[in-house]
Automatic annotation (TrEMBL):
This is J domain-containing protein. It comes from Hevea brasiliensis. It is found in: Endoplasmic reticulum lumen. Residues 1-38 form the signal peptide. The keyword Ubl conjugation does not apply. The lineage of its organism: Eukaryota, Viridiplantae, Streptophyta, Embryophyta, Tracheophyta. The keyword Signal applies. Keywords: Endoplasmic reticulum, Repeat, Signal, TPR repeat. It comes from the Eukaryota. GO terms for cellular component: endoplasmic reticulum lumen. PANTHER family: DNAJ HOMOLOG SUBFAMILY C MEMBER 7, DNAJ PROTEIN P58IPK HOMOLOG. Pfam families: DnaJ, TPR_2. InterPro entries: DnaJ_domain, DnaJ_domain_CS, J_dom_sf, TPR-like_helical_dom_sf, TPR_2, TPR_rpt. Residues 350-416 form the J domain. TPR repeats lie at residues 178-211.
Length: 467
């Protein structure tokens, strides 16, 4: 009896389990059927519709065939076959004008798309974009191929914001479109939004790890950021020459990446200024300013570079512009004052150069040089070019007047204005000859030992020039 009871319980358990399994199976069918239908995608629906069209045409049910073709085109607006078949049926129904118009538009769109690709390959981006916007997308507004070409054209003409908008529409319809992800990433890249660009490249590579263009774009971006970090780190550590090479290597990776390269050019300029390589620094800062003429720091650094190459006027001009843009910046004002002082000093007479001695020349070297050139340019010894000789002799005397006096020489070296001492840079102060035919007696201390060449006995105590 117990055995019978046990068998009964077992059978009831099995029956209950089978019921549960059937119930789950039925639920799965009911719940998953919509998802399965959706996952079939447009291609399955379109294929079925085209098969129905074939059957309808065979039995001459053209109205039903047209309805199915319209549904197919609505499901996939890029399906050219459906347009051709619809035009064919319209002709059979004697609706010739509609059929001819449809075929004409289709042919125009295809021809325009082919032309747009040809123009794109030839580099005529503006004309290609015109064909896409005014013909292809007018007749075939859902043509993904045309939309992606438009994005490439927008990138080519550097309209990165528009490229981002266009790819946004494409990805809204198909978020796994690899080309749209690639092009959208490039648009963000050229706007120097590297984090967002990298995310787009990475998303594409998750969908297709072997996609050639996505891999190239992603690793090129990583390499650029790596080179930049190396340059900045070496600059901060004082390894300036290594930093220069890193900056140059980063700039060489993508010369068209202007929104990012502007900072590389500026970083390179700053390092070159620190190294005293003025000409190279000038070129780098000018490159940065060519990209953005309002970049304040590049303007200041270019002023510093011009100081290094002794372009005093250019330095003052750049630094004045910078000071006007940022009037509260005391560092800029101090650099401007330094440039203005250098410019002023550059316009005064270079007494060292006139006597052909170095700025570290000793008093005895200055005296020897003075005696040499005073003799060489003595007006009585230059009868044929007396006017030039007088001017030269005047400068020689003025140079000696300043450089032989320790106090005056120190003030001159500091860049002070010596006009108040009668030693104006224009030569209008000190005049050993006086003016208007006056007499001038100039004293050579101790005379000239050994005489003045052809002047017998030298000048032991002084001599007079009469003019």
């Amino acid at each position: 009896m117990d055995m019978v009871r046990l068998h009964g319980v077992a059978w009831r358990g099995m029956a209950y389990a089978v019921f549960i399994l059937h119930f789950v199976f039925v639920c799965q069918l009911l719940l998953l059927q919509p998802l399965v239908s959706a996952s079939d995608g447009k291609s399955g629906n379109v294929a079925e519709l085209l098969e129905k069209v074939e059957r309808s045409v065979k039995v001459k049910r053209y109205s039903e065939a047209l309805d199915d073709l319209n549904a197919a085109i609505e499901a996939d607006p890029t399906l050219s076959e459906a347009y051709f078949r619809r035009a064919s049926i319209l002709r059979q129904l004697c609706r010739h004008s509609t059929a001819e118009k449809e075929l004409s538009q289709l042919h125009q769109a295809q021809s325009a798309l082919d032309t747009a690709f040809t123009l794109f390959d030839s580099g005529d981006y503006a004309k290609s974009l015109e064909y896409i916007d005014k013909v292809v997308l007018v007749f075939s507004p859902a043509c993904t191929k045309a939309k992606l070409l438009k994005v490439r054209l927008l990138l080519a003409v550097k309209d990165y914001s528009a490229a981002i908008s266009e790819t946004g529409y494409i990805l809204k319809e198909d978020e796994s479109n690899l080309e749209a992800l690639l092009l959208r990433g490039r648009a963000y890249y050229y706007l120097a939004d590297h984090d967002v660009a990298s995310k787009h490249f990475q998303k594409g590579l998750r969908l297709d790890p072997e996609h050639g263009e996505l891999k190239k774009a992603y690793f090129a971006l990583k390499n650029l950021l790596k080179k930049t970090k190396s340059a900045e780190d070496n600059a901060n550590k004082g390894k300036l020459r290594v930093a220069v090479e890193d900056y140059k290597a980063a700039l060489a990776l993508d010369p068209d990446h202007l929104s990012y390269n502007i900072h590389l050019h500026l970083g390179l300029c700053k390092v070159l200024v620190k190294l005293g390589r003025g000409k190279e620094a000038l070129n780098s800062c000018t490159e940065a300013l060519n990209i953005d003429g309002e970049l304040l720091e590049a303007l200041v650094q270019r002023g510093e570079a011009k100081l290094l190459i002794e372009d005093w006027e250019g330095a003052v001009q750049d630094l004045k512009s910078a000071a006007e843009k940022s009037p509260q910046d005391m560092n800029i004002r101090e650099t401007l004052m330094r440039a203005e002082k250098a410019l002023k000093m550059s316009k005064r007479r270079d007494w060292y150069k006139i006597l052909q001695v170095s700025k570290t020349a000793s008093a005895s070297e200055i005296k020897r040089a003075y005696k040499k050139f005073a003799l060489q340019w003595h007006p009585d010894k230059n009868v044929d070019n007396r006017e030039e000789a007088e001017a030269r002799f005047r400068d020689i005397a003025a140079a000696y007047e300043v450089l032989s006096d320790e106090d005056k020489r120190a003030r001159y070296d500091r860049g002070e204005d010596l006009e108040e001492m009668g030693m104006g840079g224009g030569g209008g102060g000190f005049n050993p000859f006086g003016g208007g035919g006056q007499q001038f007696t100039f004293q050579f201390e101790g005379g000239f030992p050994g005489g003045f060449g052809g002047f017998d006995g030298g000048f032991p105590g002084g001599f007079q020039f009469h003019f």
